[in-house]
Amino acid sequence: MALEALDMRHAALLVIDMQNAFCHEDGTLGLSGLDTKRLSAPVKPLARLIARCQAVGIPVIWTVQEHFAIDHSRARKQLAGHTAKRKQVSALAGTWDEQILDELKPLSEVNPSYVIRKHRFGAFYETRLEMMLKMLGTQTLMVTGTTTNACVETSIREAYLRDYDVLAVRDCIAGVNEEWEQTAQKVWSHYLCQLTDSGEVLDWIEAQVAPRTLGFGHLLMQVADIKASEHFYINLLGFTVRPAKPLADGRPFTAFKQGIALTAGGPEPGRQARQIDHMAFEVNDVRALAGRLEQAEVLFVQGPHDGPYGLTIYVSDPDGNKIELYQTGAGA
């Protein structure tokens, strides 16, 4: 599936305007004659998706639409705006109408700093969302909420124009009209985003959190003269040093952002070949991976310990090559 190309560590879930005004039968849209059962249909799948994202550390960002009873900016318009087409102005600041649905409110309170107030359709328009996503390192934005043809679609377009990978989670999005919604999704899938559903996203999350290798760390070379090798790679080839602690066995360790690292312990006198000490890879759950390798009777060179980049194990592959597996941020 298309989600396999994405990295959960750079994803965020955007929950748009799941408020009483739009989803509750006593809210503005309900009082205006719209089908709030349809608009509130995403609540259950969305609650499951939000809880799972929060459990695995995917940021869940909420938007809350907020209108003012007196809006001088909108009052300048000569043609009636959308707020004039309802029984009342929706989501007035400080009212029950503005509040997030009771079914979802506890989830929104998990991290209040992720709740963003907006005053127009777009989640990005004159809000702090774009800066927040940059701070979080977000590249993939999963979009959910209400309503399909207004705030959701505007936000999808804004995200696409900012070069995010956008996922529209269909069963977690609702609109006021099924026909409009089908047309919108056809346009989205052609121009703006990938369509998916919460079940597919949950399966993707499970695959992402399973013990696995995330990427290449470095290839460690044993050298006869580490100072001479540092001079060669840094001063002559222009390599950039990657900060790291010494190796657990006390040997010096100089790592480079270009993918190799150096340590002392070159060949015996008279030998020309240089020994590759080991290859290193970042993983997402080194303890679980260690358990899997033990069960498979893989040879361990060194068990879990604090390595230069985090909790580390060393194992031997079938050909006897030493492999380092480390989990950034974890410790023994």
TrEMBL record:
CC cofactor: Fe(2+)
Q: Which GO terms describe its molecular function?
A: dioxygenase activity; ferrous iron binding; hydrolase activity
Whether Repeat counts among this entry's keywords is no
Domain of life of the source: Bacteria
Family matches, as Pfam families: Glyoxalase (PF00903), Isochorismatase (PF00857)
Keyword annotations: Aromatic hydrocarbons catabolism, Dioxygenase, Hydrolase, Iron, Metal-binding, Oxidoreductase
Q: Which Gene3D superfamilies match?
A: 2,3-Dihydroxybiphenyl 1,2-Dioxygenase, domain 1 (3.10.180.10), Isochorismatase-like (3.40.50.850)
Boundaries of every VOC domain copy: 215-328
Q: Which SUPFAM superfamilies match?
A: Glyoxalase/Bleomycin resistance protein/Dihydroxybiphenyl dioxygenase, Isochorismatase-like hydrolases
PANTHER family recorded for this chain?
ISOCHORISMATASE-LIKE DOMAIN-CONTAINING PROTEIN, PEROXYUREIDOACRYLATE/UREIDOACRYLATE AMIDOHYDROLASE-RELATED
Family per record: Belongs to the extradiol ring-cleavage dioxygenase family.
Q: What is this protein called?
A: Cysteine hydrolase
Cite the source lineage: Bacteria, Pseudomonadati, Pseudomonadota, Betaproteobacteria, Burkholderiales
